[in-house]
Amino acid sequence: MKTSDFYFELPQELIAQDPLEDRSSSKLMVLDRKTGKIEHRIFRDVAEYLEPGDCLVINDTKVIPARLIGKKEDTDAKIEVLLLKRKENDIWETLVKPGKKAKIGTELVFGEGLLRAKVVDIVEEGNRLIQFFYEGIFEEILDKLGQMPLPPYITHQLKDKNRYQTVYAKHEGSAAAPTAGLHFTPELLNKIKEKGVRIAHVTLHVGLGTFRPVKVEDVTKHHMHSEFYVVEEEQAALINETKRSGHKVVAVGTTSCRTLESATDEKGILKAGSGWTEIFIYPGYRFKMIDKLITNFHLPESTLLMLVSALAGKENILNAYQEAVKEKYRFFSFGDAMMIK
């Protein structure tokens, strides 16, 4: 299976640069994976495709304002730091631009000295381990100085930080939003609950690896980035009960999907717990837990496009994407949505 098998032509103007005023007013394409039939709806109609007793699984991770702009203590040269993973004792694994200016021992200053830092090590792929020094609470300082780490294809400035956050975001730790969830409003979630649909939550902290291109032509040789997930006991019980009673488990986003598939054993039982997942889902994969998926439209040749192709079939997905381009759907993080049923 080749990476180039997942290529499609995407006009630049279809890459959404700004979120819509009303989150739930995005377009929704509904794809029947058995027949390949396509319906064009509005996202708030999604409730019509859920039945009483089904379980909608959301990812309640929260994006941290992980992009810090500062300068080198000695030269005042501008430097940009992107927080990737918290290690220990205020040490973070980071991505630094320009990297060559961030040698071990380099001291950095942010926000007139409100936050200071020192490069303590260089690890794989040139990422820097940086130790931060401050007075007070790190999260509060970050909220003051940090910017949302928008994906590389979004060039517009985000006016409201909360628009790159789901309305149910709770546990801080993501460097990118679980974007399928951005379409939900509190009103829509209430409407879904009133219909008798259960809502369960899992947590997967999305890393920037989600945007990393597949650089190998043989799909199976791609090394997947790792991300931390948590499935609580009560939530696992709710999801397992849904499955046992013959109802559908509907994942909101590829992140919820990856969490559920990582934490489900070969007998189809979801196990509570936490850990790191490197699961790479591509055609040929047999799904153990999810029945339906709500997702956005993904980049050509990306691991996310491979995941949706594993669920709906590559031909169905590429046909649907062709249709989406023709109908001028908006693509990627702030774009429109697809439901695979």
Give a description of the structure.
The structure is a single chain. With 341 residues, the chain is an alpha/beta fold. It has two domains: 3-63 and 160-340, QueA-like, CATH 3.40.1780.10; 67-145, Thrombin, subunit H. 18% of the residues lie in helices and 28% in strands. It contains six helices and 17 strands. The protein has helices spanning 138-145, 186-194, 233-244, 253-263, 303-312, 314-326; strands spanning 27-31, 38-42, 55-59, 61-63, 67-72, 78-88, 91-97, 107-110, 115-122, 128-134, 171-174, 198-204, 227-231, 249-252, 273-277, 292-296, 337-340. The strands form three sheets. Strands 2-1-17-16-14-3-12-13-15 form a nine-stranded mixed β-sheet, with helices on one face. Strands 5-6-7-10-9-8 form a six-stranded antiparallel barrel. The chain has a two-stranded parallel sheet with strand order 4-11. The longest helix is centred in the last third of the chain and has 13 residues, at 314-326. It is globular, with a radius of gyration of 21 Å. The mean pLDDT is 94.
What share of residues is helical? Answer: 10-25%
CATH architecture of the largest domain: 3-Layer(aba) Sandwich
Q: Briefly, what CATH class of the largest domain?
A: Alpha Beta
Overall number of strands: 17
Mean pLDDT: 94
Elements, N to C (H/E): EEEEEEEEEEHEHEEHEHEEHHE
Condensed summary:
The chain is of the alpha/beta class and 341 residues long. The chain contains six helices and 17 strands.
SSE topology:
Elements: E1 27-31, E2 38-42, E3 55-59, E4 61-63, E5 67-72, E6 78-88, E7 91-97, E8 107-110, E9 115-122, E10 128-134, H1 138-145, E11 171-174, H2 186-194, E12 198-204, E13 227-231, H3 233-244, E14 249-252, H4 253-263, E15 273-277, E16 292-296, H5 303-312, H6 314-326, E17 337-340
